[in-house]
Design brief:
The structure holds 2 protein chains of 2 kinds.
Chain A lengths: L1 E11 L5 E12 L4 E5 L6 H8 L7 E6 L2 E2 L5 H10 L1 E5 L10 H5 L9 H14 L15 H13 L5 E5 L7 H18 L2 E5 L3 H4 L4 E6 L2 E6 L3 E4 L4
Parallel strand pairs in A: 3-8, 3-9, 6-7, 7-8
Antiparallel strand pairs in A: 1-2, 1-4, 4-5, 9-10, 10-11
Helix pairs in contact in A: 5-6
Chain B lengths: L1 H10 L1 H40 L4 E4 L6 E2 L2 H6 L4 E16 L2 E10 L24 E5 H7 L7 E6 L2 E11 L1 H4 L7 E5 H8 L4 E2 L1 E6 L4 H12 L4 E4 L2 H9 L1 H27 L2 H13 L4 H33 L22 H19 L3 H5 L19 H20 L4 H15 L1 H14 L7 H11 L1 H40 L4 E5 L16 H5 L4 E14 L2 E7 L13 E3 L2 H10 L2 E5 H6 L7 E4 L5 E9 L8 E3 L2 H8 L6 E6 L5 H12 L5 E5 H44 L1 H9 L4 H41 L10 H27 L5 H4 L2
The chains are: A alpha/beta, B alpha+beta.
């Protein structure tokens, strides 16, 4: 579903020095597969995510989603790609305050879908995420775990092929984090959604099909016991 | 504290600058309207005190013909009189090399300077006693083109023309703020000769020995014997206060509205810095600062912001008052010597500074509940129910205010200002309701629209309610002020236009004493030209019209005395009580008069009642009808010209009404009359149409200030709303970035911003317009019932719709630009903020 081919992003600093934020990364994520990507701060994770989300053009290489190269999309096409083919779940819960859980969840779907239809489609998803009795509660009355689940519902509401999860458990305690990861993997496997998960949380590894590490813009194999080791991953 | 402020300032300089600009604009608006409100009254007061100095009492003549100068000796002889100074004041027209100017010609002798008035204490009157010369303040002299000693000036006073040399140009250093007063000072003898009032004076100013004022007053009253007035020396100021009441009340009302708009402007601006301050509060509390210490830190912020902003605001307000709010005495200059200087009082400065500091403090301390909370992080905690319903308390308060306004409208229109304040209170308290209804309506309609735009707009509005209401309130108040005052202004003009049309319907051409201050035709002159005018080929008849200003208790009344055969004799559209036809018959018979409502009410007069006119010869007349004030705020009396001549003991005319023969146009007739009077005449000739146009234009001039202030408030409100909305949208860029990350394109986000602004501003402005129409009715009723203006009441729907459309459209347009740029935020900002 997602394939990165020799992807690179280089920046020129003021002192004419070249910073290789992402340097020749090649990897793939199959439908229904979850790949966890680990890396310390400054390793190039965010730059990689921006390129996968069609928010940043790579210096070289390709980002293929469903076989289509998204690295050279126009702004309009890139917006459409993010809206319809990609979901994004982040550590911060980007919910609108004062607005109910279901209204927050249908936000992406409202573009091009009638409101009633959008509600009809999102409600089972929210129920599946355990929010059946919280549909009409305002976002600020929801717990952290519930908020993250609303974000997952929003991300999956357009039935995307690819889900990017950026530290999805970063603001949750261990128990809630586990619940969220379980739901996320379950739902994505059921729907054949490829997940690229970026996290520092070791417990996420337990849910991932593969774990990769990113350091200084290059992929490494990851062994929790031995740390990072340079190796080209597939 | 200073260190903490400086450190934080580096990180938020832009927001603080915006807040300073916001408060400064508010303070400027408030200060300028205060100056406008005070300037006219202060100008009259300054001129009066500049003349009367330390005098406590005055003996005044009852009409423009004055009283015998021989009385001065008898006044000086009274026990307890320390100084008695005679004066002769006549309205005059001065013609110089570069133009003409209406002024108050003041004749005095050296005894006046002993009273210490600023206008004359440094002007040596002795050296030119008996000399045909005058002194002029520099601005008047400049306008006349009189720059040098000895420049010849022509003076036209009470139908007499004379020449005088310029003796001195009075500089600001010599007479201070009186520099802008429209006066010319000459020796008593010269002014008597120039006005044809030889041996007469108009007032004798009296300074009593300490503790003997009451005794001197009693002695003066015995001397006056009811034929002259005995008043305190500030009598002119009191008369002016009554005459300018309507203008002053309207200006006060504008000052209140300006203050509110200014406050909201400042408050909106300060709200920009609230998120940073909330973080600061949380940081300080976490670091162990106690609530009082946090309040002290925030108050220091308010002090710095408020002080800088107030200083800027005062400068801005001063500039506004010079360039936009320039006082225009308009029709009041017909009866009072009103200068055009701007008078800045310490009270105006204090009110403006208190307003600015108040706005800064209220906004800085808006998270007070969080400061005092036991939870140190309360200020940054997510609040529950921020998008909740409308406060029941606010609704009840709003309804109570609305009820109070209705009660004032029906039962106490004289309290119109209070009514306007309660109406504004109702508008602000109830504004959340239409906003909630609109959001609910759009929310209900949105499902039918296949677009995320209305949904996101509704969600955004529901998530930031306090800011939304503050912005909507700014627009609401501006449109309210514009509609209420604009509507009443327009109704008043319609009524005044009717009055001036009635006054000019009885003649084709007017001939009266020259000078723009003789607009009401109150300056008397000897009617020596009547026979000459009647002999002109185009003249059907030249009639003698009489009229004057009469000080009746604390009112300077306009007395209108048309010739008995004039038609109409009384202005037909101005009657409130009584029959027009029988009143006309009675007035023609003589012994009857039409009185304006305020006078009738003050003296409990009904149609048929008897009352005594305090003319030089007290005369009892019967009330034939009750009228409006015929456009003169203190009130009016209409009688026939013969009754006037008897009561005033003079056959002088105030004007000729010249009627044309069939087929002779008014312009041709005016030409004939002008030629007959000759080029050196002190009389001015004007067609009735031209005089009506002059009256209309002067009436409008007097009310121009209101239109200017209304426009400025609208402009300020548009800017306040656009700035607040723009800033609110700019602050929302991270959230817009998140929506972009979700896949919402730039154009859709921009549409969301525009729709949200349209809803917010539309609701605010529509509510303002609706309440404004209510306010218009309140003001119309107050002008009609209390001041008796001839108001033609209407519902100013056109004014309301145009203000509503103008403010909403301009603010939305102004918001659309920052909105476009804000929506251009790169989506990756959503990832970089962590």
């Amino acid at each position: 579903m997602l394939e990165l081919r020799d992807l690179a992003k280089h920046y020129q600093t003021a002192g004419e020095e070249t910073v290789r934020a992402v340097d020749g990364v090649s990897m793939s994520v199959a439908p229904g597969e979850m790949v966890a990507l680990y890396g310390p701060s400054g390793s190039g994770k965010t730059t990689l995510l921006l390129m996968v989300a069609a928010l940043l053009a790579p210096t070289s290489g390709k980002v293929l989603v469903g076989g289509r190269d998204i690295s050279s999309l126009s702004e309009r096409e890139a917006s459409h790609f993010r809206l319809r083919e990609m979901g994004f779940v982040r550590q911060n819960f980007d919910l609108l305050p004062g607005v109910t859980a279901i209204d927050n969840a249908v936000l992406k779907l409202l573009k091009g879908t009638p409101w009633k239809e959008a509600h009809r489609r999102v409600q089972p998803l929210l129920e599946r995420l355990g929010l059946a009795d919280r549909l009409n509660h305002r976002s600020e009355t929801l717990s952290m775990g519930e908020r993250q689940r609303v974000m997952i519902a929003r991300a999956l509401s357009t039935e995307p092929k690819l889900l990017l999860a950026d530290e999805p458990t970063g603001s949750l305690d261990t128990q809630r984090g586990r619940e969220v990861l379980e739901l996320l993997t379950e739902l994505c496997r059921e729907r054949g959604v490829a997940i690229l998960l970026v996290s520092h949380d070791p417990q996420a590894a337990g849910y991932a099909d593969r774990v990769l590490a990113l350091r200084d813009g290059r992929l490494s194999s990851y062994d929790p016991a031995q740390g990072f080791a340079p190796a080209e991953a597939q | 504290m200073l260190h903490l402020y400086r450190v934080r300032l580096r990180a938020r300089a832009l927001q603080e600058c915006f807040a300073i600009v916001g408060i400064a604009a508010g303070v400027g608006l408030l200060f300028a309207s205060q100056i406008a409100s005070n300037s006219l009254s202060s100008s009259v007061g300054q001129l009066n005190s500049g003349i009367v100095g330390n005098a406590q009492l005055q003996l005044t003549a009852r009409d423009a013909h004055g009283m015998p100068a021989s009385l001065i000796g008898r006044v000086r002889a009274l026990s307890g009189v320390r100084v008695a100074a005679p004066m002769l004041e006549v309205p005059a027209n001065v013609v110089g090399p570069a133009g003409a100017e209406s002024i108050e010609l003041v004749g005095a002798d050296s005894s006046l300077s002993r009273l210490g008035g600023a206008l004359v204490k440094k002007v040596a009157l002795t050296p030119f006693a008996g000399v045909e010369a005058v002194v002029l303040p520099v601005p008047v002299a400049n306008r006349l083109g009189a720059y040098e000693f000895g420049t010849t000036l022509t003076l036209q006073a009470l139908g007499h023309t004379s020449e005088a040399a310029l003796y001195e140009r009075l500089t600001q250093r010599k007479i201070g703020p009186l520099i802008s007063s429209p006066v010319a000072i000459g020796s008593l003898e010269y002014v008597q000769q120039a006005s044809g009032l030889g041996g007469k004076v108009s007032r004798i100013l009296v300074q009593a020995a300490p503790g003997r004022t009451a005794e001197v007053r009693a002695a003066l009253q015995r001397l006056a014997a009811g034929r002259l007035g005995v008043e305190s020396s500030d009598y002119d100021e009191r008369l002016f206060a009554k005459a300018a009441a309507a203008t002053n009340q309207s200006t006060q009302l504008f000052a209140v509205i300006s203050a509110l708009v200014g406050f909201l402007f400042a408050f909106n601006a300060m709200l920009l810095t609230v998120p940073q301050r909330r973080r600061l509060i949380a940081d300080l509390r976490r670091d162990g600062y106690t609530p009082p210490a946090v309040i002290a830190v925030l108050m220091f912020d308010a002090l710095v912001l408020g002080a800088i902003a107030c200083a800027l605001g005062l400068v801005l307000g001063d500039e506004l008052s010079i360039h936009l709010f320039h006082s225009n005495p308009g029709y009041l200059s017909s009866a009072f010597a009103v200068g055009s200087e701007l008078v800045v009082t310490w009270q105006s400065i204090a009110i403006s500074v208190i307003g600015g500091m108040g706005a800064a403090s209220v906004a800085v301390l808006s998270p007070l509940r969080d400061i005092l909370s036991r939870d140190p992080l309360a200020a940054i905690a997510t609040r529950q129910g921020t998008g909740g319903g409308v406060s029941r308390l606010a609704t009840l308060a709003g309804l109570a205010c609305l009820g109070a306004t209705l009660a004032i409208l029906l039962a106490a229109p004289q309290e119109a200002i209070v009514g306007m304040v309660t109406l504004i209170g109702a508008l602000l308290a109830l504004l959340a309701l239409p906003l909630a209804w609109t959001v609910a309506a759009v929310r209900r309609l949105a499902p039918a629209i296949v677009s995320a735009v209305p949904h996101i707009a509704v969600m955004e509005l529901r998530s930031g309610r306090s800011r939304a209401i503050a912005i909507a309130a700014t627009g609401a108040i501006a449109v309210f002020g514009s509609v209420a005052i604009g509507g009443a202004h327009s109704d008043l003009l319609k009524g005044l236009d009717n009055a001036s049309a009635d006054m000019n319907a009885a003649t084709d051409v007017w001939v009266s004493a020259a000078g723009s201050s003789n607009l009401l035709m109150t300056a008397p002159f000897a009617p020596t030209a009547q026979a000459k005018l009647n002999a002109l080929p185009g003249v059907r008849e030249a009639r003698i019209y009489r009229g004057g200003l009469l000080d009746y208790e604390d009112r300077r009344i306009w007395v209108i005395a048309p010739p008995t055969n004039a038609s109409p004799l009384i202005p037909p559209s101005q009657l409130i009580e009584g029959s027009y036809s029988s009143a006309t018959v009675h007035l023609r018979e003589g012994g009857w008069a039409v009185v304006s409502l305020a006078l009738a009410e003050e003296h409990k007069l009904k149609v048929g009642s008897l009352f005594t006119v305090p003319a030089p010869t007290a005369t009892t007349l019967r009330v034939a009808a009750v009228s409006t004030n015929i456009g003169w705020a203190p009130g009016a009396i209409v009688m026939n010209a013969d009754d006037y001549a008897k009561a005033w003991g003079s056959s002088d005319a105030s004007a000729y009404q010249v009627l044309s023969k069939p087929g002779v146009s008014p312009d041709r007739l005016a030409g004939e009359v002008r030629a007959a009077l000759g080029p050196g005449s002190a009389l001015a000739v004007q067609t009735a149409r031209a005089h009506e146009d002059t009256l209309r234009s002067i009436t409008r001039q007097g009310l121009t200030r209101l239109s200017q202030i209304a426009t400025l408030i609208l402009v300020a409100a548009v800017m306040a709303m656009a700035a607040a909305m723009g800033a609110m949208i700019w602050q929302r860029r991270p959230r817009l970035a998140k929506l972009k990350l979700e896949g919402f394109p730039h154009r859709e986000l921009w549409h969301t911003i525009v729709l949200e602004s349209l809803m917010l501003l539309g609701v605010g402005c529509f509510s303002g317009a609706l309440f404004g129409l209510f306010g218009q009715q309140l003001l119309d009723r107050a002008l009609n019932i209390v001041i008796n203006y001839p108001v033609v009441s209407s519902v100013g729907v056109v004014v309301a719709l145009s203000s509503l459309a103008l403010v909403t459209a301009s603010a939305v347009l102004m918001v659309a630009i920052p909105g476009w740029f804000a929506a251009s935020v790169p989506a990756n900002l959503a990832l970089q903020d962590e």
